[in-house]
């Protein structure tokens, strides 16, 4: 299952990079917004992995899990939107938002296709 998620993450990253390269010559702000959203989304995935690992290890050792995990994840997810809103001359707001949803959309498409075949 984890390898399936990694495949989807790689596929979504390839999709975002291809879109960013296509928009590079048309509108540089869209390309930079896509790259900003993709980079900070993958930072979010690293934070999510560390948070879940810490919570699981705390639960297995009957300790209190770290409480700042949710707040940190929200800050990391909001960062590309705040940066794009602060610097609209460099980053397109909608393009910075797109990588946050592309991974979920690809997951839905691939899993829905697999459920219909079963």
What does this structure look like?
The chain has 118 residues and is mostly helical. It has one domain. Helix content is 83%, strand content 0%. The protein is built from 4 helices and no strands. It has helices spanning 2-23, 28-60, 69-86, 93-117. α1 packs antiparallel against α2 (28-60), α2 packs across α4 (93-117) and α3 (69-86) packs across α4 (93-117). The longest helix is centred in the middle third of the chain and has 33 residues, at 28-60. It is flat, with a radius of gyration of 17 Å. The model has no long low-confidence stretch (mean pLDDT 84).
> Structural class, from helix and strand content?
mainly alpha
Fraction of residues in β-strands: under 5%
N-end to C-end Cα span: 16 Å
Number of domains: 1
Shape: flat
Roughly how many Å is the radius of gyration? 17 Å
Number of helices: 4
> Which percent bin holds the helix content?
over 70%
> H/E element string?
HHHH
Mean pLDDT: 84
**Which residues form runs of ≥5 with pLDDT under 50?**
none
Number of strands: 0
Largest sheet features: none
């Amino acid at each position: 299952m984890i390898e399936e998620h990694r495949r989807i993450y790689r596929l979504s990253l390839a999709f975002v990079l291809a879109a960013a390269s296509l928009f590079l010559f048309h509108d540089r702000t869209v390309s930079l917004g896509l790259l900003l959203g993709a980079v900070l989304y993958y930072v979010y995935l690293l934070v999510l992995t560390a948070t879940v690992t810490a919570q699981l290890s705390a639960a297995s050792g009957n300790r209190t899990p770290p409480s700042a995990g949710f707040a940190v994840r929200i800050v990391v997810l909001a960062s590309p939107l705040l940066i794009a809103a602060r610097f609209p001359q460099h980053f397109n707001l909608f393009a910075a938002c797109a990588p946050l949803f592309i991974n979920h959309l690809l997951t839905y498409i691939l899993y829905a296709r697999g459920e219909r075949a079963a």
